[in-house]
Specification:
By secondary structure, the chain is of the alpha/beta class. The chain has 10 helices and 5 strands.
Length: about 200
């Protein structure tokens, strides 16, 4: 017990006390890269990026307690599903992705953490894959309305005429450019403000 107390004191002394109105951004490589722009894009905001390259929603769900709940944020921005749809680690049924997202939302809400749900970004992949993203985003939007949670439609703001990612907004067909992240930042700031102002 004494050891745990000393550890807590040490963490607070190192500035690890959860910031007021802190927000965790949880996701994969898109979130990881975005986090490197936080200081410039969101100056002075207590935003923390917890993105891990290549992870599916199952892997992100498995670290939810460590990377979200244990940090005690006021809100979490969940941006996940890209690697499920792309098949980077094998086929993932759409229902499994939905179940993982629902589980993360439930964990957040059970700990008093407000939820911001981001749509899966458009990707320059096969037409079938693009259609899957559209269906998943329809589910995310509908689920957010039922929970309720704040939904951020990154997809509509960044897609081209064939539901791919606009060529001027991506470096590789999946990850956004700085201009792309600027668009995302503007959208997510509005959703975060709404989430923090809303009752639990």
């Amino acid at each position: 017990m004494r050891g745990r107390l000393l550890l807590l004191v040490a963490l607070v002394g190192l500035g690890c006390k959860p910031p007021e109105n802190g927000v965790v951004f949880l996701g994969d490589s898109i979130t990881n890269a975005w986090g490197r722009e936080f200081a410039r894009q969101f100056p002075g905001k207590p935003y923390i990026a917890r993105g891990v390259d290549g992870q599916t929603t199952s892997e992100i769900r498995d670290r939810f307690r460590r990377d979200v709940i244990d940090l005690r944020p006021k809100a979490v921005v969940i941006l996940a599903g890209t690697n499920d749809v792309s098949g980077a680690h094998g086929s993932v049924p759409l229902e499994k992705t939905e179940d993982n997202l629902a589980a993360m939302i439930e964990m957040a809400r059970s700990h008093g953490i407000r939820v911001v749900l981001g749509s899966v970004l458009p990707m320059n992949i096969s037409p079938k894959g693009r259609g899957t993203i559209v269906r998943l985003n329809q589910w995310i939007k509908s689920f957010a309305e039922r929970v309720p949670a704040q939904y951020v439609d990154f997809h509509s703001a960044m897609k081209d005429s064939s539901d791919g990612l606009r060529s001027d907004l991506t470096v590789d067909g999946i990850h956004p450019t700085l201009v792309g992240y600027a668009i995302m930042g503007s959208l997510v700031e509005t959703a975060i403000r709404t989430a923090l102002d809303s009752p639990q």
